[in-house]
Amino acid sequence: MKAQDLRNSILQMAIQGKLVPQDPNDEPASVLLEKIRKEKEQLIKEKRIKKDKVESRIFREGNSHYEKIGNEIRCIDEEIPFQIPENWEWVRLKTLSLKIGSGSTPTGGKSVYVKSGIKFIRSQNVYNDGLRLKDVAYISEKINTSKKNSIVNPQDILLNITGGSIGRCVVVPDDFDIANINQHIMIIRLLNSILRFYIHKVIISPYIQKLIMDVQVGATKEGLSGEKLMEFLIPIPPIKEQEKIIFIYNLLNDKLLNYQSYYDNLSLLEVEFPLLLKQSILQYAIQGKLVAQNHNDESIDILLEKIRKEKDELIKTGKIKKEKITSFIYRDTSDSKFYEKFSDGEIRDISEEISFEIPESWRWVRLKDIILLVSGQDLLSNEYSEYSKDGIPYITGASNFQNSELIINRWTKNPRSIAKAGDLLLTCKGTVGQMYILNYPSVHIARQVMALRSNNYNIKYIELYFKSSIDKLKSSAKSIIPGISR
Question: In what order do the strands lie in the sheet with 411-412?
């Protein structure tokens, strides 16, 4: 996959509220938009800008979106391209903007360019990652003054609106001095410049780029008008979330730049980036964001009750020991905190242990409540053989786990710590975190290995959880000889 394809995926996730976790404590976007409207009203009152003839206000009622323009209210559900989080808002670009307008080329074209003076920015100077001014043209102060409406300010957003570079977009740096633009570029000047970096990411996202291509005007289909641009729907998150989105995007983009540089390097494609992408997918899986929630699914509480009954039966038959103290986790709706209640009556606030939000139909549990854990035990040298295949396989540690396969090179007739088919084997000493779902009828495991067993719970999901948490697992095993306890 090309770096730009990955970048587009990240951008699309960002503007749909899927790149960073939602924080219910963030001030909602509606508050931000109200501040912008008041600021706009003040500027109109001071006659610094003109009042919109068709001012737009978008709101939600139930599951539908409506837009109020003057006294008219209409449903705009067909225009809404995707769902956004509850604390986000949809808004027209014009509502956020102080100015949306294109420049013009001075009479005489290139013949009026000068060796030095006011920078004259053309579409070849505008790129998504910044202004490229090596070949910038210059115009005189006189021409610049005659073209006041297209003078560029620091913190403006510039957008190419014609030709092969249509859709390229840049944020003008804060320390920029002055420039002018030609008719192939649009200035987007926001009422609140704090939005500029997020709006830039929205504009270069696949969502807006498709809109730009779809609404081009003219016989050649190579131009975007200001009127069309003003009407673009923009998904607005809370300010705090915008900051997180920009931080994560920049972090990932730095990696994407390296990825692009070594695109032809097969080892990078096969090792570094696929692992990062896989880890992202795993994180989405365990947070309930990878597949749509189905309210018709059997309740997780029913599954947990089956597991408890199975455990009670094993205790009753003497196959496992009864725990001295049991517990269950719940969320208190009065304060939204998570608590663990123990069978001895103790209740403990465990909110700090909860690392991310999960869907309403999911539950947090301790691992011990859904699996049986079999610890390994080393055998003496006279209790196993590397030559005779009599008995059952003997798994000693990470050396048996290679390329998603289980390497069998020892056998024993004296098994004591037995893992069964369907168990998840996990290396817990030395090289921590190697995993394999056993497809042999039974094996003996050494103390470098644990077996996780569950009859009612999908062991493959537990494997996914451990893979998503592999760094946390390894970090808990730091010592001279790394190891994790039961």
Answer: 384-385, 411-412, 392-395, 442-445, 418-420
